[in-house]
Amino acid sequence: MDITQIDLQRIKIPLKSSFATSFGKVTEKDIIIVKVISGDHTGYAESVAMPYPIYNEETTGTVWHMLETFLIPQLLEKGIQVPEDVSEMFSYIRRNNMAKAALEMAVWDLYSKKNGQTLSAALGGKRKEIEVGVSIGIEDSIETLLAKVEGFLEDGYRKIKVKIKPGWDIKPMEAIRKRFGDTIPLMADANSAYTLKDKELLKELDQFNLIMVEQPLAHDDIIDHAKLQVEMKTPICLDESIHSVEDARKAIEIEACKIINIKVGRVGGLTEAIKMHDLCEKHNIPVWCGGMLEAGIGRAHNIAIASLGNFTIPGDTSASSRYFHEDIILPEVTLSKPGIITVPDTPGIGFDINNNLIKKLIVNEASFKRESVFR
Question: How far apart are CA 53 and CA 58, in angstroms?
């Protein structure tokens, strides 16, 4: 692929309402949009890093630094033939997975457009529709939580994920089950808020017939999760602990989890996500596509990866209107039927870019051309 120019745009898009986890509260999404240009085609992606290093070590600022200082110049200098070459090119760089992913995902979009393919087909996806769930943050009251659950169930979402933390765990799960019954698809996401000292409390979650409890223990742990999984009936899902296919292999080998959440940004891109999907499928470990409050470009990439066969649990890719008054793609992501999103059937990510909105939201931008970088 003859990549001649790469553009960055940093935007801040307000959320419709704040979203709280055990990490803290988010009121806007700080995003870097990456545009990779070759001839008449442009590939798009967005970084999922937060402005603060609370989910992992990366931030929006470090992603921008890595892109402009290391990743973009190297890609423009060396060039690639296929998207998988991007991962290989940057394999010597430790971590910085969200920065790598943002550039690699844009290359995948460019590649599929140049070949007249949907991004889903380029990745090996077969599904024409994907099931989706919704993520609910830590609310101010049980009644507020129950009202949100009721609304999302009415919308037909196929999985209800509720954030938990010490002091907001057993009571919200108990209230949901009491109000809506034992059969609604419910899970808890702890975002690393507990330790093995909380084992007995976490085991109380077994009574609620949850699909899973996600990342209850430390963000970099698999050993203690293996100890906890032995004592819990509820499947443990790993998220923050899994950064590569090798991490997934080790976690599966020691039985640290029964489910893995694949976030493309966290694992370094679509190429690594496919490898992780295939490994988990081989070992009968179901996967699902987690969310990072992505705007529309990121949601489009999530839809594409979730069309692969072993994504058997509904992901977090809800409709754009769940989080934003207006999205950065056209048309916005919507439910085609209750709890279902249709996989786009046009080349690339399958959405147009809402440039008028992006122009209003830009806080920084930069452009890198091959001839100017290496003059």
Answer: 6
